[in-house]
Design brief:
about 525 residues, alpha/beta, nine-stranded mixed sheet, 17 strands
Length: about 525
């Protein structure tokens, strides 16, 4: 039996610990490993709340900022218990709840300031727990994104944690655009502040663009035994330099990634999706679930402007409680540059799509929260266009209904490491309209399982986005045979975690095939 430790910022296997796709991966991969008879420990920060229903296992003494810290390791219950998987959280008062989904902080003036504080304490506590063998004798430590890569810094430069060198470290890049960049010194959230007496090689940690800063994403790439992206096409993208907005590639780290690739340490493995029956929402309940969510949110909303917008959205939904629209296009995503840059820069393109939808008595339902400028833009359009339903809150029932009841799932991501939304939509026989980038290339085929757009220039991309939308509506209206076949093809696609984790065992974990038990 092999013994794994997964270290991450999110974990949807426990309650209230998910913002994006990382949480899904950390929920699903350990289950697949467990099915093979192996043991998995999963640890995330407590964010000052997730430890409350847990069992205290240990107090961890740490040396940070030249003083003594005490963090606590709690075991916490899973939503669905598995005898081979144990879930933990690390608690410390400075590992605070963030203002993005209760997890991450948005620091507009000093990016990553608050998050580097919380994840430095978290990673040092995890290192101490490994040192004390609180997870047992580990074979593999699987790190996820920059939030966990401080462990590799400690492994290589901290004499108290040289024991970490006995373990094989695997590093997953979920989103290369977020890199955890902070100054080396002269800042409360700098490396020298955290470890004032520690000697380390600056050049090995340095950001390629900012000479006075270290880069935690780069640390993961440079020091892990194996590195992987969450799709093969995203791996190819990030080996090339970015030329935004026409192309998003290595974001300054392409040379580090090329070196890892040259050394045989860099792999692209497509994420999987969960195809178990689960808890299915009833069909044709989308607008009822939206109305219920808005009503509940209105009862507790104290901000007048937010309450007014919720009421406005509720009014738009009411007519569809009796008769649903002829066509439902939908999106679910965080409101960020990655997901909706095309709308922000070219709102006229979104308006043209809404005009075309109006011709067929269709609506566009978009659920998401995020950056304030994106929220403001979408609220403005919602007030102007009756067939744009912007649900500016979060609700799992509404999300599940979107995947169940929509006719077309729209994913115009500027870049996409893998994407899980398109897989969930396709699982329900829903064609997707996507930008032909990253993991979307690996999962959606034009006029076979969905629709895709691209272009050599920004203007060409935006033009093709609108034209591809019109093409999708054309098939829906005028060629039901083709539309039904596309829907059927989408439903038949299977991006299984079994296939993905087979690749993990072979390429990342480097186990002898004779030692691997596959269920």
């Amino acid at each position: 039996m092999n013994n794994f430790l997964f270290v991450a910022s999110e974990n949807d296997a426990i309650a209230n610990c998910k913002v994006g796709g990382v949480g899904d991966v950390i929920r699903d991969v350990p289950r697949q490993i467990s099915e093979r008879g192996d043991r998995v420990h999963v640890v995330v920060p407590s964010y000052s709340r997730l430890h409350e229903n847990g069992t205290l296992l240990a107090s961890l003494k740490l040396e940070l900022r030249g003083t003594s810290y005490t963090a606590q390791l709690f075991e916490v219950p899973a939503k669905e218990p598995d005898s081979n998987i144990t879930h933990y959280v690390i608690h410390h008062p400075e590992i605070e709840m963030g203002n993005l989904g209760g997890i991450y902080h948005h620091d507009p003036y000093e990016p990553f300031y608050s998050d580097v504080i919380k994840y430095t304490i978290f990673c040092t506590a995890v290192a101490e727990a490994i040192k004390q063998k609180l997870f047992g004798k580990l074979d593999i430590v699987h790190l996820h994104d920059w939030h966990s890569s401080m462990l590799l810094f400690l492994k290589n430069f901290h004499p108290q944690y040289s024991c970490l060198k006995k373990n094989r470290f695997v590093y997953c890049i979920h989103n290369l655009a977020l890199q955890g960049i902070r100054p080396f010194e002269n800042n409360y959230s700098s490396l020298k502040t955290w470890f004032p007496d520690l000697e380390f090689e600056r050049e090995a940690l340095r950001d390629p663009r900012y000479a006075d800063c270290f880069n935690l994403m780069a640390v993961g790439i440079r020091f892990a035994d194996a590195v992987h992206t969450v799709s093969p096409s995203y791996k190819q993208d990030v080996l090339l330099p970015s030329d935004a907005p026409e192309f998003i590639g290595g974001e300054g780290l392409e040379n580090d990634l090329r070196q890892a690739d040259k050394e045989g340490r860099f792999h692209g493995i497509l994420n999987g999706s969960d195809y178990s029956p689960g808890t299915l929402v009833k069909k044709n309940r989308l607008f009822h679930n939206i109305a219920t969510t808005i009503f509940k949110q209105l009862q507790k909303e104290q901000d007048w402007a937010k309450a007014a917008f919720l009421a406005h959205t509720g009014e738009k939904v009411v007519p569809f409680l009796k008769k649903k629209p002829n066509f439902i296009c939908a999106s679910v995503a965080r409101l960020t540059e990655q997901k909706f840059y095309f709308f922000k820069r070219s709102p006229e393109a979104l308006l043209e799509i809404l005009d075309r939808l109006e011709e067929v008595s269709g609506v566009y339902v978009l659920l998401g929260t995020g950056a304030s400028d994106y929220e403001e833009l979408l609220r403005e359009i919602s007030y102007k266009r009756k067939n744009f339903i912007f649900i500016n809150t979060q609700c799992e029932h509404v999300v599940n209904s979107i995947y169940r009841d929509s006719d077309l799932y729209f994913m115009p991501s500027l870049f996409e490491p893998c994407g899980i939304s398109q897989m969930l939509a396709m699982r329900n026989g829903q064609p997707c309209l996507v930008h032909h980038t990253g993991g979307l290339k690996d999962t959606v085929q034009h006029v076979h399982t969905g629709f895709a757009f691209d272009g050599k220039t920004y203007d060409e991309k935006v033009y093709n986005m609108v034209e591809s939308f019109k093409e999708a509506l054309y098939f829906f209206e005028n060629d039901k045979t083709v539309w039904k076949q596309i829907s059927l093809n989408a439903r038949k696609m299977r991006f299984t975690w079994k296939k993905s984790v087979d690749e993990y065992y072979k390429l990342l974990y480097a186990f002898n095939p004779a030692d691997v038990q596959v269920a």
